[in-house]
């Protein structure tokens, strides 16, 4: 332990003496982060055109699912590879794989090819987010890292707002294949910048990759994601397929935990969970992902169905939440950098997240866009307190040699939280919509909706007045139930935040001499 502490102190001193080129590196990292986050937003807008060209409507969901599965399953492996063999090489490899997947997806001639190439793209994407977070963890001490939280939150907001708009413009003017080709020049810029200016110590591990652990974790994550993706839509929750997937997933994850106690170089070393703060941040990250992606799914749906907003501007509908999140994240980062104190932010974030979700649950058919925007801003403020602080505290809670697995584990828990959030909140929403439609419109509602529960603004306008009013009330009621559930789940994040211990951030008090050597 003493040797590890000395090693950490030496690396922190190196961090304090980073050259000015660190800003160029950060710019390249943000470009790579934008690649990972922007892709699904752009592709989602292009999907109707893709299906019209390639056919295969029955396989539509797999275009997204293949990418999501590959991303989630590869995330922990990329983190471990960076710890063992060096982060720069692992990160550059992940970018190259992502770009190969992008190029081949753009050249796909049928839906089966597109699904396969999207899986390749997802494998690369798994290393992009982890690589960004881990490299920032290597370059910048935790005490200074808060300064850059606004940049990361800004990239996230840019992706969510700009993605649908960019996707629609590209598809209309250049064709859907450019929704994938657009990644190539952006990725090439990131590759060149990172190759030229990122300098990290080379690592060469003598240990062997934990193939058994990687296989078991991949099977477990795949089963979980498929359960949350298929449950209640492709298959009934109590169906044999879902039950089998649950059984396979539980068995694989139990086997994975056991294998990690025996492996020489475990994919996810269990000792990192001995840190109370790391475990609590994993819990908070899971709940934040659960709430955030549920909100991103249902808020545009509510505003399109009930408030009559256009689907074309779906990204702009989230602007109050995303701007609030970005501003609060920037403030939280600055305060953390200046004071070294951070426990207040998980607590404040938990309170604001619960309050925002509860307010959103009060929306009905009469709620104005201004009022719903204010409610979204409250939720965004809560997430702004949590999004980057969870990663910062998690990274500060482990030794620097475990920075990659800490970053990948935190990212994985947030990803799994988003999968559960969309599935669980979606199931509650759909059940409530169907129930209310049956009450208010009877068989007429079912015929008008064609058995579905979601329509765009144009489709709703064409419905008979009684059915339209019933559907708008049903969506409002479903949104109420989904956000109320989210508020209850968010209580877990607040409870976890109270148990966080405020451990001093590494690099909290750099010596004046170190600063003068820059």
Automatic annotation (TrEMBL):
The chain crosses the membrane at residues 21-47, 59-78, 90-109, 115-136, 148-166, 178-199, 211-230, 236-258, 278-302, 314-332, 344-361, 373-393, 405-429, 481-500. The keyword ATP-binding does not apply. It is found in: Cell membrane. Residues 25-504 form the Major facilitator superfamily (MFS) profile domain. Keywords: Cell membrane, Membrane, Transmembrane, Transmembrane helix, Transport. SUPFAM superfamilies: MFS general substrate transporter. GO terms for molecular function: transmembrane transporter activity. One of its GO terms (cellular component) is plasma membrane. It is a multi-pass membrane protein. It comes from the Bacteria. InterPro entries: EmrB-like, MFS, MFS_dom, MFS_trans_sf. Belongs to the major facilitator superfamily. TCR/Tet family. NCBIfam families: efflux_EmrB (TIGR00711). This is MFS transporter.
